[in-house]
Amino acid sequence: MISIGAFAQKEELKEAQSYYAKGKNQEALAVLKKIEYQILNAPDEVKTDYFFTKGNVYKDLATKNVDAASNFALASAAYQDVLLYENESRNYKYAFKASSALKEMKSKLVDGAYNDYKIGKFKESADKSYEVYLFDKKDTLNLFNAASSSLAGKDYSAAIKYFEELRKINYSGKGMVFYATNKKTKQEEVFISMSARESSINEGLYEKPRNFNPPSKKEEILVSLGFSYLERNDFRNAEKYYEDGLKINQDCLTCCLNLAYVKVQFRKEIQDQMSSLGTTASEMKQFDKLDAQKDEVVKSAIPYLKKALVIEPKNENAVKSLLGIYRSLNMTKEYNALKGSM
């Protein structure tokens, strides 16, 4: 026997579904929010009706690119509630449709992130990629895409968050990529697995299969972290990640150049301390000590610049920086030798 409360909820759900069918998503959401507090105590059938309708509304908003990343997350949560309650009740009314909707949304959001990136909407691209990653954390490429998009959009806080997460899960990006050429479009496309590609080839839709094993992304992640911290004037963390990058690749030119830059920035910290000192005997002694430290800090940049010139002998930034350091430290012999070799 159905209760009066459950009957009323069903009627309001029909109203929400009617609004959704007419494309009036905001009106549908208003009805759903009105009865939300009643749903936990509702019969399982009403719960699944409610969450399936909620998922559909948020999915439609996400598909129309209305706050896509956020609405994707809300739709995903609603569809997963459908699966949860139907698994508990063993009454599978919407399970297949909910699972299909989740896969469809993931595909559309990945496409949306790619399209946003192409037109320079980097934040929107990053948000979408990260939501896809949260939905399926085994698909770590989406986390890498979120980090890369944030870096491209100069959102260094988000870039650090995502690259740090990649580092913690030991992401390398390595793994076989499966390509084949679409016979109709003549364009090469990527497949999620070898079996998926073979199936398409057997159907006569694709040809010219090839495999590609991409290089590790670990160096790129560390360099990107170094750069992001550098842009935020966090020189200590920048130094740490550039040094880690050099451990992976001793010929990392970017690491060498930016480590030299970071070392010189440390000199400014010491100069600020020197400027704050007075003229007492103890302070003058401290001044001389800091002055010596300042020169040693600057000297510590020299090996990195020399290494940069081994990697790329004509690098203008390395030559200019090294000449500047030699001049500031009165290293006339070294200055003239470098100047003469140009």
From TrEMBL:
Q: What is this protein called?
A: Tetratricopeptide repeat-containing protein
Q: Which residues form a coiled coil?
A: none
> Is this entry keyworded NADP?
no
Keywords (alphabetical) are: TPR repeat
Spans of the TPR repeats are 219-252
What's a Pfam family in this record? TPR_8
Task: Please give the InterPro entries that the UniProt record associates with this protein.
Answer: TPR-like_helical_dom_sf, TPR_rpt
